[in-house]
Amino acid sequence: MQSFKEAFSRHLRHPSTGPVGWLVKHILVRTNRYLEKEAARLLGIQPHDRVLEVGFGPGLGLQYALEHIGGDGRGKVYRLEISPEMIHSATKRLHRHIASGKLHLTLGNVMNLPYPDNSMDRIFHVNCYYFWDDLDQGCKELNRVLSPGGAMITTMDYKTLKLSIKRDLNAYADKYDPYAYMKSLEQTGFTGVRMEHLKDGVKDFEAIFACKE
């Protein structure tokens, strides 16, 4: 059982192939869908926006962000993913948007974002900041690529997160404290940092907002 828990935790942090990877992927699809949808909605995406999703999962938020962008606007959606398997999965599902030039997928790490300064208008991520090697460095990079006047949001289910850690199913989520994350946001130049406890139908979740002046 302990070896399964370790493998499950490892795939949560860095999704890959194999039976445990398949299980984690399907659990993420089921549990993250509403969080991805709410993040895209709360971000207030406009048709001309350049939107970045920083991800550690199936990339469900890409579809919602693309719906807000639409097909006629100048906006584009970018996805940074640490897992080649998740890049492959998103590429198969959203190949039409990639071919149209509206969607760009990149393999990389939030510690060193492969985007120019001030190149994104909106940024969102779901259930991933607590896996970053260095919170301050990750937040510093996100602030660097966000344009002045831009906004960022992360959504999470804090209750479920704490339960997964208690059950030893999320051993690598060692920076899960949202207040530590919010402190890093403020220290690296974000303003208007706040957390709201919200509800999507019957599901409770948390959203952390930040912007760049």
UniProtKB/TrEMBL annotation:
Domain of life: Eukaryota
Top-level enzyme category: transferase
Keywords on record: Methyltransferase, Transferase
InterPro entries tied to this protein: Methyltransf_11 (IPR013216), SAM-dependent_MTases_sf (IPR029063)
Pathway terms, separated by semicolons: Lipid metabolism; Phospholipid metabolism; phosphatidylcholine biosynthesis
GO biological process: methylation
Alphabetized GO MF terms: phosphoethanolamine N-methyltransferase activity
Domain Methyltransferase type, residue spans: 52-153
EC number(s) on file: 2.1.1.103
Catalyzed reactions: N-methylethanolamine phosphate + S-adenosyl-L-methionine = N,N-dimethylethanolamine phosphate + S-adenosyl-L-homocysteine + H(+); N,N-dimethylethanolamine phosphate + S-adenosyl-L-methionine = phosphocholine + S-adenosyl-L-homocysteine + H(+)
Protein name (record): phosphoethanolamine N-methyltransferase
Organism name: Branchiostoma floridae (Florida lancelet)
Organism ancestry: Eukaryota, Metazoa, Chordata, Cephalochordata, Leptocardii
